[in-house]
Amino acid sequence: MSKLPHITTSIFSTMSQMAKEYNAINLSQGFPNFTIDEQLKELVSHWAKKEIHQYLPMAGFPPLLEKLAHLTQQSYNRTVHPEKEIVITAGATEGIFASIQSLVYPNEEVVILDPSYDCYETPIMLCNAKPVRVNMNLDFTPNWERIGNAINSNTKMIIINTPHNPSGKVWNESDFIQLEQLMDLYPNLLVLSDEVYEYITFEKKHLSINQREKIRNRSICISSFGKSFHITGWKIGYIIAPEALMNEIKKVHQFLVFSVNSIAQYAINDYIDKVQISELGNFYKLKRDYFRNLLKETKFELLDCEGSYFQIASYSKISEANDMDFAMHLVKDYGVATIPLSPFYKDKTQTQCLRFCFAKEEKTLNEAAERLMKF
Fold first, then answer.
1. Rounded distance, CA 76 to CA 212, Å?
2. pLDDT digits (tens), the chain, 375 positions
């Protein structure tokens, strides 16, 4: 008997497989198709030849932890203890899994804001806890009335995500104030903040849970080197949490993966000194603007994109089909793979929108746009 009978192949794997099957341009799964920084390649090559191939400390390479503490201070004016409040994880997904498994107990509830990434619900269910899915507003901003009504004394955690996948929305100051007010009402409530796109924002500056002094002692922040440095296949990220929570998270982390790839940690430790992470938003803003300009010539209606490397587009002027059918049609008949939004919702809400990943070479984006103009 399955512990997860409702879990099937993810929409990301499904659409990428279809892209291969139909020789379509893959703007579905969220990974870049351009080369990574040559400096980073050289660092990997350098360290691969050194004798660093055994286990690193469970929490991570100490010099890297120190640099992440400095980066957090620089980015968010938060002082964190490198050994006690940071842990390197095997990707953000492992960080999310370890955090939920360690802190959520059977029969407790965890609030998830839909549309939501698909890795949140499974670890909750494996805790024998209850995921409570709450739809956001149609513009993908949090609906605080609905959220407030969904939280009770049995709610252990709320999961937030900014910049948001799939919509690219970035939380406002008012959203964090509402969150803080809610946490005042429920003193045992924790927040898990998925901030893997934290350095990919555009006109609106990213606001982090790291900056919320009032509630950060009850917060877990998830970050991703994979997203920040275009190395999604390395599966490496990190968690920042107060010591009391981190002690529990480490108990799961050590038996889930123990420690993370040594070569990757050494290379990233050096690379942080060679790159301006704050400039990453400008890099992706150029790609966003380039892609949006191309899509102006199509019948798709573009929604605002404030962060991440995803563009939401409505096809309501093209078709009345549901989003799964339209996405399949787009792959099979036009050769462009996207992600429909309904799988991000518990109730399969129909928005007549698709998610496009623009973290691609200009050639790829040009070819995709040419095909989309045929509508």
1. 9
2. 888 888 888 899 999 999 999 999 999 988 899 999 999 999 999 999 999 999 999 999 999 999 999 999 999 999 999 999 999 999 999 999 999 999 999 999 999 999 999 999 999 999 999 999 999 999 999 999 999 999 999 999 999 999 999 999 999 999 999 999 999 999 999 999 999 999 999 999 999 999 999 999 999 999 999 999 999 999 999 999 999 999 999 999 999 999 999 999 999 999 999 999 988 999 999 999 999 999 998 999 999 999 999 999 999 999 999 999 999 999 999 999 999 999 999 999 999 999 999 999 999 999 999 999 988
Element (H or E) spanning 43, and its range?
helix 38-48
- Give 37's DSSP letter: P
Contacts of 307 (CB under 8 A, 6+ apart): 162, 163, 164, 168, 169, 170, 197, 200, 201, 202, 204, 206, 281
Confidence (pTM): 0.96
Q: Which residues contact 112 (CB under 8 A, 6 or more apart)?
A: 120, 121, 124, 131, 132, 133, 134, 159
Distance CA 32, CA 227 (A): 9
Please state, in angstroms and rounded to a whole number, the distance separating the CA atoms of residues 334 and 328. Answer: 10
Q: Per-residue b/e over 274-285, b at no fewer than 16 CB within 10 Å?
A: eeeeeebbeebb
DSSP H or E run through 88: strand 86-89
